[in-house]
Amino acid sequence: MTTGTHALRPARLTPATWSFLAASAFSSMGNGLTFPIGALYLERVLGLPLGVASLFFGTMAVAGGLASLAGGKAIDRGEPQKYVGGAVLAEALGLLAFAFARDAWGVCAAGALIGAGNGLFFTGLTSLLATLESGETLDQVFALRYWLINLGNGAGALIGGVLVGAVGERVLTPLYLANAASSVLLAAVLLAPALLGARRRPPRSASAHGENRGSERLQWTSAQVAIVLAHGLVVLFGFALFESVIPFAFVHEHQASVSLAHVVVGASTIAIVALQIPIARWVRPWRKAKVLEAQAAVWAVAALMGLVAVGVAGQSLWCLAALYGACFGAGECLFAAGLQSLVVRSVPRAQLGRFNGIVAASYSAALAFGPALGFALLERVTPRAFWLAVASVMLVAGQVWSFVARQSAELRAT
After folding, report:
1. What is the pTM of this model?
2. Into which CATH architecture does domain 10-200 fall?
3. 50-66 pLDDT per residue, tens
4. Where are the domains of the chain?
5. Residue-wise pLDDT tens digits, 114-123
6. CATH class of 222-413
């Protein structure tokens, strides 16, 4: 068994892979310029009611889910680069439309383009990377890409904050234009003949349908159903809550400064940047379902930190908020090192697009409904019950991942 000490060596990746990773990191920097300020832009720059923000994010979620479900079969039949590149162009057009929108209809149209682009991008991402790398090298790319996009998001957010502080809110429209330009660059790399010519053709499907990829019906195994279920639980009670509900919970429960929310999110980002590559090396020999089982356990521990934070104040509260964020970030590193690698091991190559379309659609739905669910819980139960509920769901998700690991072991044994 390898120890992983040589994992993530740059020399092992193809030039096409490095081109995509570099462009993806640059695009994520563009996203970082605008990601935190969507609602503020609508209210303060465009002068629209705050309720339009709900329409915008809701439209994004619906469009993303529909694009994911509709695009999977096409990605299985065609070349993933072309579909993913087109998805990034759609997102760029949506960002341009958002920058110049002047009413709710324009904002919703922009949200539809951005959401559809995001949905199709994440539906085809695994298939795209699987045409460029394979085996352990592909595992490395999944982890390296996650590290790079978080590094880019953090750098973009920092640059955006400095520019707004120096120039004022009038700079927000140019920031959206810069974000759109970074997406155009990524699309150009994906659609460039040089990248398309450099890709390695995927191996023929062992299902005897290799001549007509994507035409056979998607065959579900119990492990695949379990992957979708566990993924949905983790996104609904993990990522979706962390984006809005968790920072609010830390501040609201203690009537603390809003800066406490920045501590939670900042600690998470720092942890991802610092730990993603070391964790990917550490878990390289593990079965990927076991990596995700560990991720669910780590997020259960993070929820217990939130539970403890309910009863503290002062410096102890700030320390626990930082620890929570760091723990959540470590869990994200495990998630990035496990999920896509598990999918490519559990789903036939000719069905990756459709399976990831369902996973991406469930992700969009969870992100749409998760905050509403989280805020409803905070309104109806005690803070301690809220944190216990989150921890319990993570433990359930861990058991589902354990089932996937057992199924995988049984398949190898036969």
Report:
1. 0.83
2. Up-down Bundle (1.20)
3. 778 778 888 888 899 99
4. 10-200, 222-413
5. 999 999 999 9
6. mainly alpha
